[in-house]
Amino acid sequence: MSQDLILETKNLIKAFKGFTAVDDVNLQIERGAIHALIGPNGAGKTTVFNLLTKYLTPTSGALLFNGKDITARKSADIARLGIVRSFQISAVFPNLSVLENVRVALQRKEGNSFHFWKHERVLNRLNDKALALLDDVGLSEFAHSKTLDLPYGRKRALEIATTLALDPELMLLDEPTQGMGHEDVEVVANLIKRVSAGRTILMVEHNLHVVAKLADRITVLQRGAILTEGDYACVSADPRVREAYLGVADDEPAAPVAAVGVHSSVIAGVGA
Amino acid sequence: MNTSIFTHSKLNLVLLLLALVAPFVLYPVFLMKVLCFALFACAFNLLLGFAGLLSFGHAVFLGTGGYVTGYLMINTGITPELGILAGTVAAGLIGALYGKLAVRREGIYFAMVTLALAQLAFFFYLQAPFTGGEDGLQGVPRGHLFGVIDLSDNLQMYFFVLAIFLFGFWLIQRTVHSPFGQVLKAIRENEPRAISLGYNVNDYKWVAFIISAALAGLAGSTKTLVFQLASLTDVHWHMSGEVVLMTLVGGMGTLFGPLVGAAAIVTIQNYLSGGELGNYIHIIMGAIFVICVLAFRNGIVGQFRKVLKQNF
């Protein structure tokens, strides 16, 4: 197979004292794709993210980035290689200004981050670039506000701008639309679509409308293992996926809706 | 962004003028004591206020600076500026060693590691032959600055101490408002995010720790020259606690807070130890600490700022 893989995991396992959170996962992320990782709560999606970025150390298995083994690298090194992640809870620097949030990401490549004897005004030469990035996500008018004061949806947009500042080859987005109102979801989904040009995105996402709209490929996790993979039509039609979300076999008529939440209705709707 | 009036150059100028006039009004040795502790607290605040690291062993750097300077001044006859430089470098080196170990842990564990290492140093200094043990190093000569200016004169000594303080204060201010300071603030605000942007956060904490330790050493070296004494008091954990108190009373994370806090605590201590309340000094300090933590979480400067913000 002559697939162009940007990231690959080989037999990835993470066990916490007898509980296997990630069980023998072989992920293959194709370059240029938007790849979604879905699954019911506790399926191990965020754990996989933490393993890919070494916020957790795998019990066994290997991580390959562009064919090179990065299993032993530290989190910060992995970021430097071009894999930049976001977090489930919005990850901003609340007491810095919006502009400074982006600038602190741009600053890393300047090589002056240890210069404690220089005045911070040397960073002003990055302001134009930072403003352009903010403009990209519609935040330029807030550049000089304190980040703390931004509404939640805009914080997530700022997070994406900050991530983009590093021009990552691979972006890992952990539930980018979580906790957002309907309109913000739409805005962020469009934003992700737009910034995906020329790069690869791996995202954990609960909102299946967003997944349907964005993802080229979907991997479904259940109890730490890969249940199935494919595009949206293929995955949503899979009876095992419906079972995983619904908790019952497909042919059983009464699904325990209350225990399943919103996702079930979406899956069931598409599957039916 | 720090846009408050406290970084305003006018205020800086007024304070500087006050510092220049002060020794003609107040007792210079008292003022020098305030300046030494203020520098110590400012150095400590660089870690706590701007890097979010609570070191509970900062006395070791104050004391190390003092011992090294004291020992060299007594035994080698070098000039005071070199003596102070040596003390500062020594504290910086110990800071590099201790910091390397401590930044591997966070929060309460960081504090415990620094405390344990500082206690280690305390018992070492208690036993070591060159520290004078319980007696300390007494009669440390102040010497002649650059071999010319006689520092045994309190007024000349005062201006020397003021210059050292201003240098240290400037360096801390610069560090906070430097590219390095930006990263430090980012780490304080959201460490996992800073890592995900590719920063090896422990290296940044380590450098901050070294700067803080070296400046604490500078304060200790200077203090030893002022009082012509290096003693176990300066490496005792009480001293580590006192600097926390000064910083919190003044306002952590503000540039002038530690200065105000140090001045307040030193003044109270001086006042109490002379009067009949001398026996209750620890109880009173404890009460002040409790009141501050309960009522003025932002310290004197922080509270002042807040009131100013609300009313103007």
Automatic annotation (TrEMBL), chain B:
Organism from which the protein derives: Marinobacterium aestuarii
GO cellular component terms, semicolon-separated: plasma membrane
TM ranges? 12-30, 37-62, 82-101, 108-126, 155-172, 243-268, 280-300
User: According to the entry, what is the taxonomic lineage of the organism?
Assistant: Bacteria, Pseudomonadati, Pseudomonadota, Gammaproteobacteria, Oceanospirillales
Task: Quote the protein name from its UniProt record.
Answer: ABC transporter permease
Q: Name one GO molecular function term.
A: branched-chain amino acid transmembrane transporter activity
Membrane-protein topology: Multi-pass membrane protein
Localization of this protein: Cell inner membrane
Q: What is its main location?
A: membrane
Checking CDD domains in the record gives: TM_PBP1_LivM_like (cd06581)
Which InterPro entries has this protein been placed in?
ABC_transp_permease, LivM-like
Give the keywords, sorted. Cell membrane, Membrane, Transmembrane, Transmembrane helix
One of the Pfam families matching this protein, by short name: BPD_transp_2
